[in-house]
Amino acid sequence: MKRKEFLKTLGGAAAFAVTASCLGGCSKSDDSVTENPVAGLPFSIDLTDSSSSPLATNGGYIIVNNTVVARDLSGNYVAATNLCSHEQKRKVIFQNNEYFCTEHGARFSLSGNGLNSDASAGLTIFQTVLEGNILTISA
Ligand code: FES
User: Fold this and answer.
1) How far is the CA of 118 from the centre of ligand 1 (A)?
2) CATH number of 43-138
């Protein structure tokens, strides 16, 4: 077999190998992530800014920098990653004074402990410090 013929044969096989390796698993629309849940910290929020207005109410929350920042029902500011430990989806919100993943229903306490089976790996919780109207979130 001449070199050109060999490469032509190999090229077809290589193309098949690349195609076959992506069958059923290479979708760009999959929102699974493998990011570090603490990336982007620390950051600060100006509570007088209109984008922070949900935090004026106990139970309100915002999502910024892949972080759920909330004001719990006692009036304390709390924060956690929005990256669920169950299947690595950024679907965690704040609901009923706990963190909740809208993907499959994982529930996490304010301290990040899992409250049901999908939440058994816990949630990464961040520190919050309030100085004047500036709320700083850090790892
Ligand atoms: S990805 Fe959050 S509960 Fe499954």
Assistant:
1) 6
2) 2.102.10.10
